[in-house]
């Protein structure tokens, strides 16, 4: 039978809000009851109360001394003054320490500093005191039967301390949701298993379960199940009996081996199949025995987005408690974002704060690029009725992390270099809360970002053949709106990256006249691309005749990896990236890689820390160990 005859088709392609409303309406019975349980109060951190909690005892449950000194009946102090002290006999006072219970016949404490000891049995006092002077009264902290924690409150360690003070041993909390994650697919293997071409390591379960654990969900994962309908059906059928939520990974699309929709339909009901969002479009929202069963797309970013947009709100509704932040902030966009009309698109972004304004750097990558979500701290939503946003437009962004993490994110735009990755690591090593978001948009792009206040600093290495200088002519040309300081990060060697042992006997730029050689290029605006075009012009080589000239990569490592993967024969890049993949290298030119820093942020703590790192001997030693770098000028102010 032709596979096309077995293909699934979407039941729906509806807006996200409508899909959630439709799904939640179908799960009314599921949401109607939230079971609770009685647990030890000392194990209740991050749990949510199902009933109000009331103190069983007062705290303190007796009058006690707030100071070291003597306890006394305040009436016995009447008449005492500095000029006419009063002598008190032992029968009328007790020596007492802070925290000691007070004699029932006494109602005040006089500090040791305010008495004069005549003997152990006799003292002088120099002022009268009032009732309950320096006394912690019964119930000062808690009064028996006082409410300690209201219902539907997330418990923290302070709450636990107050509960213990109030004599509470056990507490009623909402039961945690139990979730089962079922990974499916012929291509999936576990880490450590022997891999063949076409295999992918299964990691979606670790990511999704980890996100759910963070909000109090108990999670389990089944073994990987191959694309076999009966095996998948059996696992779903067994899981729904035991768990509150079942998540099936992959098999949600419209392929001939995508069985999730069919299985849910047979065991229960599919409420929604297909939501107009990107990524995450082919999600399945179903129920079996009135419990939610969700079919996630296999692409990791799609799965993560569905978790944020649908699964978390479902859990919130089930436990009737807000568990994640969806407060948006305004940010200025660093580049134009295009989107197709008809679907809400969610774009990952790094956001930092520059001169009291949030700046959003959209990250590249499709639904399968999990590294982009690792680098992101916010999401940008492009509504389905618009074609995108313009550069410098003020837009709403949805934080994925605490706002303090965003405030401490330092955006480094411009050219990429391995030394910037090393700098990022050294900054994190300081443990001061700062981290770098590296935005590889090329040297020219970085200078324009500096000019428009779209980054904290940039990396640049642009050769000017007219002046035989690096960087300064271009800084003067493109940075008009900011005064800047230029600081040398490193000098490095540019050259031709080729496979180990140079199997095609490549000798230099002139070999690019050979149409059989496949080249891999850097993106327009990068310093390497500008240098390469200059070398082509100098050698009278027509770029349009170079096989692969339009195959652009955003980093030196990407160029080297393309050659390492045998998808190209050569490329222009830095020596350190060739060393990283054990490739050969033909040196062409030493160049200056400089940092351009606006004077408006130069004295900020994070910049001073970065400069301190750059100038440290430890940092320079680490650079030199990579190979292909010269640190003689590292940290020097060029201009």
Your description of this structure?
- This protein has 639 residues and is α/β, with parallel strands linked by helices.
- It has five domains: 3-33 and 177-319, MoaB/Mog-like domain (Molybdenum Cofactor Biosythetic Enzyme, Chain A), CATH 3.40.980; 36-59 and 141-174, Molybdopterin biosynthesis moea protein, domain 2 (Alpha-Beta Complex), CATH 3.90.105; 64-136, Molybdopterin biosynthesis moea protein, domain 3 (Molybdopterin biosynthesis moeA protein, domain 3), CATH 2.170.190.11; 325-404, Beta-clip; 443-630, D-Maltodextrin-Binding Protein, domain 2, CATH 3.40.190.290.
- Helices cover 25% and strands 28% of the residues.
- The chain has 17 helices and 39 strands.
- Strands 29, 30, 31, 34, 35, 36, 37, 38 and 39 form a nine-stranded mixed beta sheet that branches. A six-stranded mixed beta sheet has the order 16-13-17-21-20-18, sandwiched between helices.
- Strand 20 (284-288) and strand 21 (291-296) form a beta hairpin.
- Helix 5 (229-242) packs across helix 6 (260-267).
- The radius of gyration is 34 Å and the shape is flat.
Jot down its keywords.
5 domains; 39 strands; Molybdopterin biosynthesis moeA protein, domain 3; six-stranded mixed sheet; 639 residues; Molybdenum Cofactor Biosythetic Enzyme, Chain A; nine-stranded mixed sheet; Molybdopterin biosynthesis moea protein, domain 2; 17 helices; alpha/beta
């Amino acid at each position: 039978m032709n596979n096309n005859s077995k293909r699934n088709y979407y039941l729906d392609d509806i807006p996200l809000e409508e899909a959630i409303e439709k799904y939640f309406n179908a799960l009314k019975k599921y949401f109607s009851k939230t079971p609770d349980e009685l647990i030890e109060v000392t194990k209740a951190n991050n749990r949510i109360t199902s009933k109000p909690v009331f103190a069983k005892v007062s705290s303190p449950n007796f009058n006690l001394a707030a100071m070291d000194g003597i306890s006394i009946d305040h009436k016995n102090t009447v008449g005492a003054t500095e000029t006419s002290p009063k002598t008190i006999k032992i029968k009328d006072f007790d020596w007492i320490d802070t925290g000691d219970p007070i004699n029932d016949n006494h109602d005040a404490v006089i500090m040791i500093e305010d008495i004069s000891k005549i003997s152990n049995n006799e003292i002088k006092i120099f002022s009268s005191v009032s009732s309950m002077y320096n006394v912690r009264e019964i119930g000062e902290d808690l009064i028996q039967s006082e409410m300690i924690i209201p219902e539907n409150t997330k418990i923290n360690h302070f709450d636990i301390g107050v509960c213990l003070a109030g004599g509470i041993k056990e507490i009623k909390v909402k039961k945690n949701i139990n979730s089962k994650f079922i990974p499916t697919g012929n291509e999936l293997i576990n880490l450590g298993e022997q891999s063949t071409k076409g295999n992918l390591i299964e990691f979606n379960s670790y990511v999704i379960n980890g996100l759910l654990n963070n909000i109090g969900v108990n999670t389990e994962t089944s073994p990987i199940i191959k694309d076999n309908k009966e095996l998948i059906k059996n696992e779903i059928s067994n899981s729904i009996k035991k768990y509150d939520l079942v998540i099936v990974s992959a098999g949600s699309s419209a392929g001939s081996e995508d069985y999730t929709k069919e299985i849910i339909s047979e065991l229960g009901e599919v409420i929604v199949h297909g939501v107009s969002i990107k990524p995450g479009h082919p999600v399945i929202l179903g129920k079996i025995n009135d419990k939610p069963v969700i079919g996630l797309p296999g692409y990791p970013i799609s799965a993560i987005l569905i978790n944020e947009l649908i699964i978390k709100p479902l859990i919130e509704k089930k436990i009737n408690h807000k568990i994640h932040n969806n407060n948006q902030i305004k940010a200025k966009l660093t580049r134009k974002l295009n989107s197709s009309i008809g679907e809400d698109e969610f774009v990952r972004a790094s956001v930092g704060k520059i001169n009291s304004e949030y700046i959003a750097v959209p990250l590249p990558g499709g639904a399968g690029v999990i590294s982009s979500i690792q680098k992101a701290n916010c999401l940008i939503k492009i509504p389905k009725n618009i074609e995108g946003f313009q550069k410098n437009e003020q837009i709403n962004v949805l934080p994925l992390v605490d706002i303090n993490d965003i405030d401490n994110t330092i955006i480094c735009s411009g050219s990429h270099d391995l030394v910037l990755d090393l700098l990022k690591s050294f900054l994190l090593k300081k443990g001061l809360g700062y981290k770098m978001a590296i935005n590889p948009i090329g040297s020219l792009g970085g200078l324009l970002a500096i000019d428009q206040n779209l980054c904290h600093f940039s990396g640049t290495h642009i050769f000017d053949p007219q002046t035989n200088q690096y960087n300064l002519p271009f800084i003067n040309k493109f940075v008009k709106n900011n005064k800047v300081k230029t600081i040398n990060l490193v000098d490095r060697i540019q050259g031709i990256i080729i496979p180990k042992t140079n199997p095609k006997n490549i000798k230099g730029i002139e070999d690019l006249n050979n149409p059989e050689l496949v080249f891999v290029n850097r993106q327009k605006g990068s310093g390497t691309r500008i240098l390469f075009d200059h070398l082509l012009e100098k050698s009278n080589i027509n770029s349009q005749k170079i096989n692969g000239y339009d195959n652009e990569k955003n980093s030196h490592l990407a160029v080297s990896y393309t050659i390492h993967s045998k998808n190209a024969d050569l490329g222009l890049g830095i020596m350190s990236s060739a060393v990283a993949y054990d490739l050969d290298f033909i040196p062409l030119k030493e160049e200056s890689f400089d940092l351009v820093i606006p004077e408006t942020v130069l004295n900020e703590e994070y910049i001073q820390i970065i400069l301190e790192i750059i100038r440290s001997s430890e940092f320079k030693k680490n650079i030199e160990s990579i190979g292909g770098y010269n640190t003689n000028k590292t940290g020097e102010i060029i201009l």
